[in-house]
Amino acid sequence: MSTEKQAQWLASPLGQYLKEQEQALFDEAVHDIFGFNAMQFGMLAMPLLRHCRIPYQFGADVAGGLMQCESHQLPLQAGSLDLLLLPHTLDFSEHPHQTLREAARVLVPEGHIIMTGFNPVSPWGIRRLASNNDDYPWDANFLSLMRVKDWLALLDFEVIEARMACHMPPFRNSSGHGRLGSVERLGARLWPLMGGVYFVLAKKRVIGMRLIKPVWGKSKLKAGLLPTPTQRTDVQNKHE
Q1: Do strands 197-204 and 107-118 pair parallel, antiparallel, or not at all (unpaired)?
Q2: pTM of this prediction?
Q3: List of domains in the chain
Q4: C-alpha angle with apex 204: 203 to 206, nearest 5 degrees?
Q5: Which of 57, 86, 137, 229 has its CA 20 to 30 A from that of 51?
Q6: Residue 53 CB: number of other CB atoms within 10 A?
Q7: How far is CA 142 from CA 11, 31, 89, 188, 239, in A?
Q8: What is the 3-state secondary structure (H, E, C) of 153-178?
Q9: Side-chain half-sphere of 131: how many Cα atoms within 13 Å?
Q10: How far is CA 214 from CA 50, 149, 217, 218, in A?
């Protein structure tokens, strides 16, 4: 994927529309996630971590960001991230399933992953069929939400939230968007599964692991664990 093509498309009316829709979703989702390390892979022109309260944040991409790498080969230690954002990363990965495997590897237990991707069962998917496969973003993988959720389940992720966005048909010009602003609101209510973009928030679960929390305000030693001195024991100790 060319970063130049991506930047040009995001600057178009349709790209601006997608950015506005997705930025709002990420802003709301990251606000209440805590930890130490957060990374955004891809779509670095969108500041998706701007409302995140995790102290150390950085971006990565194939040819940009603090760390340059492939999404399916992250040069990070296992269990090193508390939050990982993958905006359309699966769409442009040559190995999308392996990308999710890497996400599971680098996340801490109970860590979060947030993803977006293009929905093939939507007007955007129909537009893709009628477009040149070399044009961005119609050259994306367009994975179905059902498949992505199946992959997450196999990797022991729990889906916390899944929704659709970008219900407006993908017109080229801004005038179409202006006239059909009501379509977005109606689409979210009347045909919620037909949005052009899916949004998923999931948490990494570790089978058999239990988080043990301290119980405050109780005695550290239970009654009966220590013997209570008797009169005979006291007398015996005095003679010794």
Answers
A1: antiparallel
A2: 0.82
A3: 3-239 (3.40.50.150)
A4: 140
A5: 137
A6: 13
A7: 21, 28, 11, 20, 87
A8: HHCCEEEEEEEEECCCCCCCCHHHHH
A9: 17
A10: 33, 34, 10, 10
